[in-house]
Inverse folding.
């Protein structure tokens, strides 16, 4: 059988892909995109469905936060390990295992009979998502020649945009339509046909290939990273309901100690000639370290805002799930416009990120002003202008972010750097649900089921916290390189 060679990346050359499979690369790309859609939808749908789920299954206010934080935390801590498993055992195999496990997790979510079972199933989704998602980048680089690579990756933008628009609307419609009497459960059960189709098509069309010099799995490093992340997120979510006892602060202090141990261990593995989970040399690069800070802070604000906005429109303003989903469309459209605008001003490099932070902060401040002027009768149309500006700033900031952060990274470090950056993005999302959810519920007090001034005060405090996080992102962005890499 003849073969065609594929592009290699740094220290991880990949095995050749059989030509008989290589010709199906565009079909295989659709399979990979199906996995991305599963992740995007499930990262967004619970922000709309959370109040309905809590009304049915019960649980505390913390349950609303865990529905989002549990998924993103598991996804974040598992991404780098998932990528390594693909190198070791084959990217096709790990994609299929991840897609099948994600589908099973979705089924368990749809069958959940308690808040604990649902949150546990969300964590399971995140873990299998971490196994599925990292394989896409490697598979695309193996399947496509350089001249087609841009077109292949170019499809991810529209998919992300459509998912960000369609996810909340689909969740709201399914809950309101209540097909077959399933209520909120259908937002998870709808994953079953898509997941099964991804597995079936993946078996047929994804190529059998893996890194020819696969690195070993740093299991201890992965466990330390997961433990450190859990020790910070858990007390942030549960501490408010428990009255902030001493153990919550002890856990947060222990988190810092565990991350310090993680850094020491990774350096030790590198010195002994092993393969650390995270390449220590990356943290000696100011631009990359600054990018981790910007990503952690920005994505905390973005995800926390999405969660609290959905809760406020339903619990505070009395919107139905569908109306709450439709109310987010201007925000998503603004984000898509921001991505497009960023391409036109890409030559300004880091200044685009600064402009995005300023524009998004102005949009969030505009939401505060709109809520004060319109009161509890505010309509989605009245919120739309400020949401468009918020989304526009978000798109401007996100579009050049990865390229600029990776500008100072050596070619052989690119894979590790991209995986680490994506993992920190997901950790930031988990922290955002924890921190901003806690700010919101702390101000709300015992008024969770009754609209009134308490809701507006809680929303004000949360939105100004988002503005503060964007200000911190603006300052941290000065650590970034001024321009993306010349070859990009």
């Amino acid at each position: 059988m003849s073969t065609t060679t594929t592009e290699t990346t740094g220290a991880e050359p990949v095995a050749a892909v059989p030509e008989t499979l290589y010709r199906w690369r565009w079909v295989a790309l659709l399979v990979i995109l199906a996995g991305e859609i599963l992740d995007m939808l499930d990262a967004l749908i619970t922000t709309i469905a959370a109040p309905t789920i809590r009304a049915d299954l019960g649980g505390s206010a913390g349950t609303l936060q865990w529905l989002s934080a549990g998924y993103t935390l598991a996804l974040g801590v598992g991404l780098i390990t998932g990528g390594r498993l693909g190198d070791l055992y084959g990217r096709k195999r790990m994609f299929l295992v991840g897609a099948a496990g994600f589908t099973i997790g979705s089924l368990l979510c749809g069958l959940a009979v308690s808040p604990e079972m649902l949150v546990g199933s969300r964590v399971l989704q995140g873990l299998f998502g971490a196994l599925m998602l990292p394989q896409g980048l490697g598979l695309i680089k193996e399947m496509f020649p350089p001249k087609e690579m841009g077109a292949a990756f170019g499809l991810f933008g529209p998919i992300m945009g459509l998912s960000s628009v369609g996810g909340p609307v689909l969740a709201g419609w399914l809950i309101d339509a209540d097909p077959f009497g399933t209520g909120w459960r259908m937002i998870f059960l709808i994953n079953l046909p898509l997941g099964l189709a991804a597995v079936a098509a993946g078996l047929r069309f994804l190529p059998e290939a893996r890194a020819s010099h696969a690195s070993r799995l740093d299991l201890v490093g992965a466990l330390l990273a997961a433990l450190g992340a859990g020790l910070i997120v858990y007390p942030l979510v549960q501490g408010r309901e428990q009255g902030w006892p001493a153990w919550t602060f002890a856990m947060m202090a222990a988190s810092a100690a565990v991350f310090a141990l993680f850094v020491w261990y990774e350096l030790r593995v590198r010195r002994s000639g092993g393969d650390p989970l995270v390449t220590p040399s990356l943290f000696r690069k100011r631009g990359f370290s600054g990018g981790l800070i910007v990503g952690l802070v920005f994505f905390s604000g973005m995800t926390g805002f999405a969660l609290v906005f959905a809760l406020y429109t339903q619990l505070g303003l009395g919107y139905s799930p569908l109306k709450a989903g439709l109310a987010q469309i201007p925000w998503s459209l603004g984000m898509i416009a921001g991505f497009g605008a960023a391409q036109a001003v890409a030559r300004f490099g880091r200044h685009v990120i600064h402009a995005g932070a300023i524009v998004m902060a102005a949009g969030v401040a505009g939401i505060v002003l709109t809520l004060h002027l319109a009161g509890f009768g505010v309509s989605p149309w009245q919120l739309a202008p400020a949401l468009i500006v918020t989304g526009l700033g978000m798109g401007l900031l996100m579009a050049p972010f990865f390229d600029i952060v990776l500008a100072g990274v050596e070619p052989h470090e690119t894979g590790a750097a991209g995986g680490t950056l994506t993992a920190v993005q997901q950790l930031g999302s988990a922290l955002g649900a924890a921190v901003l959810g806690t700010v919101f519920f702390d101000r709300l007090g015992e008024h969770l089921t009754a609209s009134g001034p308490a809701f507006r005060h809680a929303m004000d405090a949360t939105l100004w916290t988002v503005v503060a996080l964007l200000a911190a992102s603006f300052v941290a962005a000065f650590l970034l390189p001024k321009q993306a890499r010349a070859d990009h």
Notes: The CA atoms of residues 84 and 144 lie 21 Å apart. Strands lie at 3-4, 17-18. The longest strand covers residues 3-4.
